[in-house]
Amino acid sequence: MKYISEFAKGFMGLFQSGAKTFIDWMGSIVPVVLLLLVLMNSIIAFVGEERMNKFAKFASKNPFTRYLLLPFLSAFMLGNPMSFTMARFLPEFYKPSYYAAQAQFCHTSNGVFPHINPAELFVWMGIAQGVEKLRLNSMDLAIRYMLVGIVMNFIGGWVTDFTTAYVCKTTGIQLSKTAEVTAD
Fold first, then answer.
1. S-S: 101 plus which of 45, 119, 127, 153, CB 3.0-4.6 Å?
2. 77 and 113 in contact (C-beta within 8 Å)?
């Protein structure tokens, strides 16, 4: 009976610990994420969706804007998973590469911009908590992680271009390299 009682106590302790963490987040990170989302949606509404779409088409024209600028801005403005929708402005050939760069960016920027990927914020917060226990600045780590991530995301996107070209060549499939955006 003692083992069952100890198991029940530990099981409830797990939920009590989770509830305490949740309440802590409600007083700290959740309002920040909410206000960042409001800001981003306000900027998009102010700039206009059509202008945002034109920018995305422009950014799809070369690898630097396609895998550095467009993923950063779409993740910052739209967050995960909406940032992937900007791929609709890209030619079919570049969509896998954009997805590769974008998917990675949504993770590597979470420490600096928590609104980008709030669903996985707990991962970053766990790491930050360990860093802070060592009396180190977690923002320094977040910025370094994001900067290294930006470079690696670009490389990942560009390497995926070569992979896509290889797959197209070996399968005989031709993917368009010109953007054809149609109105919804």
1. 153
2. no
